[in-house]
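Quick one, tokens below:
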């Protein structure tokens, strides 16, 4: 096969890539398949080409003068987010996609971005298999939903939560994220993607607690939401999730709300946390769900 070379994407490449998106994605991306004709035209002719051209990270793989594939990305937090990646069908499984991803990884490292990221639909099985082969890992692939927390037989005084003031919240949050990073679970540290919860934290949208087991600080809990519908995030050691500590912490925090709980969605930091908690949470009546799209991360 002719040698393959990677070049920075031009405006012409952005236009070509936008057109190829509409050929590649409808069979595997529900959003594309369900799109109205007028929106397809708008995206194809204006939005996607302009969006791709504005990306400071964009490359095209060529064999001679013929384009074989493309990749467009943008920084997001400490990760370089891959927003578009495609390879012509007749040139797949020949290393073209791998070359593009590794070129993006090199650019990310050069610019101080230690991670690559991408979002993939669960229906896009070829993209999921490709991502796994390149060592991407899912970030929070599960969550647990409950309309009410199960009762606990008795409150154990060993488990308690202390609510954090605004000044205390950020240090506690970053401390637990750094523990995830130092443990090697960097793809699971929420701070990597600059989640926007900080913008609401000082307006009563989110509340924050440190969780204790005996006299030991054992976790960080955030609950956000209004009207009895809450989203919770719990960072702790996986070993603490194999018992009833999480239920005690959630009960203690939710008891401070005046509005009755209508629904709770719980997220955990890593796949290891999800696996450790699965049996306990299912036994407690929480429903395990999988999002329609997965956020995937790997080291650059």
């Amino acid at each position: 096969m002719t040698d393959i070379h990677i070049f920075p994407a031009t405006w012409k490449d952005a236009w070509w890539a936008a057109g190829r998106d509409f050929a590649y994605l409808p069979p595997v991306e529900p959003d594309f398949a369900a799109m109205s004709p007028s929106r397809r035209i708008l995206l194809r002719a204006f939005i996607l080409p302009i969006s791709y051209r504005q990306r400071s990270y964009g490359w095209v793989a060529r064999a001679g003068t013929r384009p074989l594939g493309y990749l467009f990305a943008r920084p997001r937090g400490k990760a370089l987010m891959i927003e578009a990646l495609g390879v012509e069908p007749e040139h797949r499984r020949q290393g073209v996609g791998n070359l593009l991803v590794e070129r993006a990884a090199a650019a990310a490292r050069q610019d101080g971005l230690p991670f690559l990221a991408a979002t993939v639909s669960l229906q896009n099985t070829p993209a999921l298999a490709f991502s796994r082969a390149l060592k991407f890992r899912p970030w929070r692939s599960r969550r647990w939903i409950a309309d009410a927390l199960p009762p606990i037989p008795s409150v154990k005084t060993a488990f308690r939560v202390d609510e954090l003031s605004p000044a205390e919240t950020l240090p506690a949050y970053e401390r637990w994220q750094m523990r995830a990073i130092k443990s090697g679970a960097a793809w699971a540290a929420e701070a990597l993607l600059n989640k926007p919860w900080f913008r609401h934290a000082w307006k009563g949208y989110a509340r924050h607690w440190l969780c204790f087991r005996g006299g030991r600080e054992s976790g960080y809990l955030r609950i956000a939401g209004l009207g009895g519908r809450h989203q919770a995030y719990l960072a702790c050691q996986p070993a603490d999730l194999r018992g009833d500590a999480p239920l005690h912490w959630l009960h203690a925090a939710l008891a401070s709300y005046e509005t009755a709980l209508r629904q709770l969605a719980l997220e955990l930091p890593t796949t290891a946390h999800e696996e450790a908690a699965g049996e306990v949470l299912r036994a407690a009546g929480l429903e395990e769900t999988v999002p329609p799209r997965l956020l995937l991360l790997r080291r650059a």
